[in-house]
Fold each of these.
Amino acid sequence: MSNAEYISAAQAAQVVKSNDRVFIHGSAATPAHLVKALQDRHNELEGVELVSITNMGDIDFNKPEYKKSFFFNSLFVSANTRAVANSEAGDYVPIFLSEIPLLFRRNILPIDVALVQVSPPDAHGYCSLGTSVDIARAAVDTARTVIALINPKMPRTHGEGFLHVKQIQYMVWHESELPVVDYSSKANEIIRQIGKNVAALIEDGATLQIGIGGIPDQVLQNLSGHKNLGIHTEMMSDGVIPLLEKGVINNSQKKINRGRTVTGFMAGTRKLYDFVNDNPLIRVMDISYVNDANIIRQNPKVAAINSAIEIDLTGQVCADSIGTYQYSGIGGQMDFIRGASLSEGGKPIIALPSMTNKGLHRIVPFLKEGAGVVTTRGHIHWVVTEYGAVDLFGKNLKQRGRALISISHPDFRETLERAFYERYKLHC
């Protein structure tokens, strides 16, 4: 077809054949309109493998009628793909986020069709991958066929996300609002205290890796008195905007990409999408670059702030599963934990509430059977809860146990102390 022509989503979906491997653009860029058109063809298809990281929007594949048609091979499980990833119609690939592009570039998971959502072509014919360059850059570079949803609501971002119309085989015009997430009003007193505890560890001139969620949002809200902060992060949300506008984040101390905020993808409100639109101070980059520990370490005082599902008394961090149930993925946690630890003055931080909303304790004697270790006890440094912050780096197993018990929930400390005694025959 001519690149000047647009076709319908239903027509574009006809390109996908049985047994194809189909990439779905992730996060706020999830092309739900194209996905639904593909789902409408489920009776005509068999064995289509879908690969993606975090998705947003209504793209539920956990339906009996889809079992023979689609297999969801998730590279990072999200809320709307969790059920199918844990079923016979899906699975999860354990992999560092930084290395996912290698699956495409090395033909380990060659892509037949890439479904992406992009900004309209500019005067020179370039669209932008917008809110999510991350692994999408490698997918569109290597896919046999690229189908692009052209959405004028998608911001045109600077960095490595530009895609010329000549690289797109089929284009579908569809205007719709991007998915939004807003954590600013969801914080409770526990999350607010964790935010304060983490912010107290961050020095002036630090480079931040900070994601989206209640804890990152609270950390950012407690940094307004800081100076000369930088951002080099795999993902970001609205919380950075006030600090950028006030000059608290100015990226002036960074050794690479000085003066510019670097991210791999973003999700937030319309305010964020408008803020990054055609903003040359925001660079949205290939995740193999953003999450490369050798790149991360070059910036000063990297504070990498990540979370966890549970931590055992030796410092092993489970961040991707609840026992054998795949909840999320390895993602970029280890990329940044390692990068921060190698950065001059860096602080790798795991921040988490001491208990879940259901009253389950997160600092435990042993991880649940089948739990995945994302950050090993050899990589762990700072652990922060609402009860304080401890640095496990250089501490032996007994010292770690005592330190972690000191920031656990008070109602569970006696149980942890008993487990400590049973293991070491010593009192805390």
Amino acid sequence: MFTLELSEQEIFRRKSLEELRSMGIEPYPAAEYPVTAYAKDIREQFSDEAPRREVQIAGRIMSRRIMGKASFSELQDSTGRIQLYISRDDICPGENKDLYNSVFKKLLDIGDYIGVKGYVFRTQMGEISVHVSELTVLAKSLRPLPIVKYKDGVAYDEFKDPELRYRHRYVDLVVNEGVKDIFLKRTQVFNSMRAFFNEKNYVEVDTPVLQSIPGGAAARPFITHHNALDIPMYLRIANELYLKRLIVGGFEGVYEFSRNFRNEGMDRTHNPEFTVMEIYVSYKDYNWMMNFTEQMLERICLDVLGTTEAKVGDNIISFKAPFRRVTMIDAIRENTGIDIAGMDEDQLRSVCKQLHIDQDATMGKGKLIDEIFGATSEHKYIQPTFITDYPKEMSPLCKRHRNNPELTERFELMVNGKELANAYSELNDPIDQRERFEEQLKLSEKGDDEAMFIDQDFLRALEYGMPPTSGMGIGMDRLVMLLTGQTSIQEVLFFPQMRPLL
């Protein structure tokens, strides 16, 4: 049986809870509390010349200064903080002063939710405040918030430990300024991108999260079991193959904000559960998609930041279109001096040895080239750069390059040394696609646990005919990181994956 161990503060707050009830005050009332104003609006709309404004607001008590018959408190709502002036005689006009003396002074604590009615005024110190005439208890907080205190210029009780912040995001959002703004900007990014697509009449869709075959990317899946069908199922690693089925079905442009799952490592830029946006547009190619992508990102920056520049650490990233374009072969050549064009697997292994890059027997040409690029080149592209024309072994779902059958019409957008977006001229030849899948099967048999499965239903769909199409996927979490200046993906996820506490 679980035993709840309470701190001294938690015991005290529970006693206050019972005292409130003994006084006939329900600490968790069921009735609606109508809110007519918010802290930010009150501050921004106040004018000393305007008529007195009556307001009704609600939020958490974040500080208190009790001064006998009158007190000052700070209330925090969803928009910010506002000072309250609370006078005993105003909120207790009759003989009974218990609401002030017993409730506000003794039984309410920092973190409690209250609602207040009153009027807006400016104090002698010049601070816009609410003069409270009525106070209602809305929710009693049974755990003390880690409110920062200062003594002799030193801060105490700061809630800064990353692990605690990510585990207890609800506390992080309450006590740490700026955290909520990151997530508001995240919503703005999504809304701006969605508006950009909708203006072009592309259709937002939903595709399955549970899939019988984990297709559309090279990654290790999470495996589960479907009891009713008695079959293994996989959490999706990508939604690409389902979106292409919709293009086969006649949609000209479709997109989806997809929650994906990859059973792989975790670091500052990877979380096993993450969000990707994928879009597919008929009758387009990867050259069109490069133009489309840079226009989209420039628009989002302007919508969210009001500028095309974002500061990430010491770097100023410019999302002003157009972006630089470099082929993958040229990128490796310019960063290593080695031309890997036309090299076979043995020659690529020799290059890896020369450059001290780890490799193993499960790696084919595509994986070796990917390792070389990742180790020598990727991190050097700080400003947005399209890396184009990948070797075909790296891109089993991508159309062969129109000028070089050993390459594919693919780009990845590198920003701040990391991949942000990935796009193709989509392979729509079902015979070629089957052969590419079979090559992936051979890699799987060699031990590559990220090789793609053969999706027979997707091949069937292609055999009905898919028009020339370009598709692009963009890592939404990484985009939010860039536009909010964060260097860790955990800072832009409300609830990042954590090891459970014992």
Amino acid sequence: MNIAIVGTGYVGLVSGTCFAEMGSHVTCVDIDTKKIEKLKNGIMPIYEPGLEELVKRNVEYGRLQFATDLAQVLDDVEVVFSAVGTPPDEDGSADLQYVLAVARQFGQNIKKYTILVTKSTVPVGTAKKVKSVIQEELKKRGVDIPFDVASNPEFLKEGAAIKDFMSPDRVVVGTESKQAEEVMAKLYHPFLIQNFRVIFMDIPSAEMTKYAANAMLATRISFMNDIANLCERVGANVDSVRRGIGTDTRIGAKFLYAGCGYGGSCFPKDVKALVRTGIEHGYNMRVIEAVEQVNEQQKSIVYDKLNAMLGSLKGKCVAILGLAFKPETDDMREAPALIVIEKLLAAGATVKVFDPIAMAECKRRIGDVVTYCKDLYDAVDGADAMALMTEWRQFRMPSWNVVQKVMAGNVIVDGRNIYSREELEEMGFVYTRIGER
């Protein structure tokens, strides 16, 4: 099957590459000419484990190519995926200008039956706007060309996106016609030969499913962080509480880990957009509003602990381990580390940082206001305190003897609860974590 994917960001590039890996002929389209030239030369715009190898292999086999103009490839494709950005507006709503621009170009150039599938995360009702724009463009042309719109939200986890796409829990597709449903079923069949897990539904339900899924996961995180903060005050241990409730089959153990808050491109944006959708329809999403409020407060918890343990932060040196919002990505959008760094600098501290992947992205965002280090030990050298913000594997078992030798102080704030209190306190460190007194 021949398909085009507009947008070569995280969703578009991963989706296009995986479709190509399964035998489809894919053209990834982006108006950013520099990005397209880099992709043609094998230079990835994002970091995702295994993606570079997959892109290069499918380009070599002729199944994956790149272009800057959708109009030039429309004649050869059956399905167009729209995977452009939907950044939040100031009021929290999703900015649909790029989504509607794709719809406009689609309507201006199609010559035969084609399906436009929205893969970007968009509010309920977006498909109606997309369809209206296409119809408007066809009317301007004075033609009556059949087309369909569909919704196919992505559920990819950064750091595990290829596995998620190639072996999905489920594929959600919203359609309005049997023809579109049959085409989408054919497209996803190679991924789900043994267990066909495509869930077909109406388009508004598909659009809502994406927001509901991310909001539920964000809710579990904020709920557990709220419990963790209370645990500290009453003398309970949040890890014990997590094990106690996570073994309840009605609850389950996933996304119940306390920490310093969630970030990234999905949860913060989608929670805000869902709240805004409620407002636009005269309904207050009170639970979701609380989820967002708890998370914003939680992003400062590592700073609060450092401030309490060190007293005045002025003149102190703090080592930050981990900058990305989660391991296996260089994504720093809404990352808690950014909040902690900003507060530390404002308090007069000096900050040293290290992240295995996200150093360049951090420098792009905040410049040289921090010291960038070559590894964990370089970061803690001379530091009064160490704060773990991202649970990269290489941070899990450092040589504590070396850390102790090179640090100027002995304070460790564990923002992801991965270290042993007993081990560190026995060595003389002053250790604290989230959700435990």
